[in-house]
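Re-running the complex after MR caught last week's input typo. The corrected sequence lines follow. Everything else is unchanged.
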Amino acid sequence: MSVYGFLPYALTAWLFGWGLYGIVSSRNWVHLCICLAIVQSSTYVLLLGIGYRLGAAAPVFAQFSASTAAVDPVVQALMLTDIVVEATVVALLLALAVRAHQSTGSLDPSASCEMRG
Amino acid sequence: MALTVALQLVALCLLAVLGPGVVLTRDPVRQAIAVSFFGLVLAATFFLFRAPDVALSQLVIGAVALPLMILLALTKVKNREAEQAQTKQAEEGGS
Amino acid sequence: MSGGARAVLAGLGIAGVVFVILWGAVDLPAVGHYLGPYGDVVTPLAVFARHSTDAVSAVNFDFRGIDTLGEEFILFTSVLGVTLLLRQSEEGAKGEGESEDRAQGRPTPSTGDAVRSFGSGMVGLLVLFGTYMVTHGTVTPGGGFQGGVILATVPLLVYLSSSAEIFERIAPRRLVEAGESAGAFGYVLVGLFGVIAGVEFLRNVVPLGKTGTLTGGGTTVLLNLTVGLEVATGFVLLMLAFVDEALQRRRRAQR
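Corrected-run output:
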């Protein structure tokens, strides 16, 4: 596999790893939510790489006939709804962060993790 | 076609640099702007890979709606902190 | 567990995940050499059997319509969750702040001229563009999701460029909530057309129009509209939930 053929998959692993590192080492709930958005972006790159065909056109046939080579529309449909859902899930997490700030007084994850025996 | 391939490679490398950039920005307000720029470059990458629907969706969500909600949440937190500081000051002044 | 031990464990976990992703990716076909049959099967079906020139919309709302139903309801539930989480703290403060300020009719601090003129200019353009994006979902790239989010930024632009009162007048909470429920229910209702016609749920039973026009696509057009309504009102509700406290703070500060 050439470099070009493998690069999107390598980018997926790279972004996923960095996003996970950001989540694990985070000191702020909001920073954590944004790192989760980075992890989600890595999955979009993976799906994008799976469906792409060299030299093909976008799967919209308003201007040309339906028999021209096109990239895979099924994978793009998956990505499309996924992006909108990502935004609402991050909104829900941000609301949880605001409530956590209300009850503990700080946005630091370690402030809310005390377990008393 | 060689131009498209070259642009795609440039976009992917740019994403590889921006991703850690967003993670390593610790201040949430700055990170909101960083993730907005990351969303913009990601939308351009989708467009270069022949996915216009997805690019539209990513552009609107990742560059507008997501940083907006982050900044709104941060404003809410800051307002609450200011309010708590105010009530604490009022208590200390009164007692 | 000490910080150092946790860091080592996290590092091992992240390295493991990255390795598994790369190991799996080695067996995938190289990017650019798409092999799979589904894309090539679906594309001519979308254009000729469903009269929709945008294959992605046809896949989203017709071939995989029930998937989109699930995603729409994830959105609905998330908005519900955000509204519930952020409303509890508002209960006591909301009543007194509202009545006092409404009775005395105090003006809010005015925004700058540049912001106001730019905002008002953009509002008309955004409404037009958002509606265009929603209605042309089956013809060109676009659809309910993208157009809905564009439409949702309009009330927020109004809030930023003019006052909170105008924002509440054009996007009153009850109307927006009703719109969101109508959008979510509308999707299920269009799906039930199929059941009423005697075939399965979400089947495309509405007459398919001419390919390449606004009516091409059958139920896809209706589903685009309901999803556009639901996404737009959902995002406005999200913003309302976050912005509510800032609205009241402004009123209380002017007492």
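None of the earlier attempt is carried over here. The radius of gyration of chain C is 24 Å. Chain C is about 75% helix and 0% strand.
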